[in-house]
Amino acid sequence: MKIKSIVKNGEALSAFFEKEKKHLLHFYPGLTIQRLKQDFKLMAFIHGIDNGTNADEIFDRPYLSYKTNPLTIFFEKLSLGVPLEYITGYRYFYKSLFRVTPDVLIPRSETEILVEKAVSWINKNHSEDFHVLDLGTGSGAIALSILMDTDKKLQIVASDISEKALKVARENYSSLKYLFPAHHKMTFIQSDRLHNIKDQFDLICTNPPYIKRLADREGVHHQVQNSEPHLALFLDDDLYDLWFHDLFHSCFHSLKPHGMVLMEGHENHLEHLAELAKKVGFGQIELIKDYTDRIRFLKLLK
Ligand SMILES: C[S@@+](CC[C@H](N)C(=O)[O-])C[C@H]1O[C@@H](n2cnc3c(N)ncnc32)[C@H](O)[C@@H]1O
């Protein structure tokens, strides 16, 4: 009698992918078996399942289909459409790996353009030290990426309305602080926009919630809608202009004379918001495009 060989983790993962492909692609457009293997490896490594000596060995181990098996848990979360970054708990952004939880937005690659602009402005500027605000810091991805990419002395305030998001940002600060010069300082504050912030800044960076809850709903992928924090994404349509008016007004008064605001926004609304910024008093306003030629950023100078 022929004994059926033991199914290995790698085979179970491939079989799951082939069987559930249609369902998975609905949640994860463009997903490949290579990406799944990479993320399972990352999850196994980070959560101490694999000892790290040869990460590929994880796929040669027998598949044990009990409930606490990491691969079974991985399958369950994938079937529910949980974003891969929330499953592994990590997202690569700019130059580092950031911890992410469902309390924070998964940092997007287009936001790296904002970081690049901020770093380039700091490095070209004659001043040697800067006071910077990252408003709506989430995972802390913008603030920490800037800190890692300049030797000039920075004092960064990372703010968010969400205390849970600030907890994740603090965690990322603790694990990444050894990667940037010791003279940089980073502090955290809970605040609705700038309401609790009294400092004057050279640079204000922000990727605020900018999707109109109703008008922009069609363009939001259902996985984003179902998994990411709505506080990080949406504003009520009827309060949209008021919300940004308050933000721009406070930024104007918290900015030093030669300071700059860099803001990410929605391609459909940034031209209108530029008009709003002008009314508040900003003298120089620039709309910046992303690599796909869509208007995605606003640069404001006094
Ligand atoms: C689009 S997410 C950006 C997160 C992160 N900066 C990034 O780029 O990945 C917006 C962030 O703004 C925060 N936020 C929402 N409303 C806010 C408010 N009124 N004041 C300050 N932060 C707010 C959210 O909690 C969220 O972390």
State the main characteristics.
single chain; 302 residues; alpha/beta; Rossmann fold; 2 domains; two-stranded antiparallel sheet; binds S-adenosylmethionine
Explained architecture:
The structure is a single chain. The protein is α/β, with parallel strands linked by helices and 302 residues long. It folds into two domains: 9-88, no CATH class; 93-98 and 104-301, 3-Layer(aba) Sandwich (Rossmann fold). 40% of the residues lie in helices and 21% in strands. The protein contains eleven helices and eleven strands. It has helices at residues 9-27, 33-46, 70-80, 84-88, 111-124, 141-148, 163-176, 222-227, 230-233, 240-254, 270-280; strands spanning 90-93, 96-99, 129-135, 153-160, 185-190, 201-206, 211-212, 234-235, 255-264, 284-289, 295-301. The strands form three sheets. The protein has a seven-stranded mixed beta sheet, sandwiched between helices. A two-stranded antiparallel sheet has the order 1-2. A two-stranded parallel sheet has the order 7-8. A hairpin with a 2-residue loop joins strand 1 and strand 2. Helix 1 (9-27) packs parallel to helix 3 (70-80). The longest helix has 19 residues, at 9-27. The relative contact order is 0.10. The mean pLDDT is 93. The chain binds S-adenosylmethionine (SAM). S-adenosylmethionine (SAM) is lined by residues 104-105, 107, 111, 135-139, 141-142, 160-162, 165, 192-193, 207-209, 231-232.
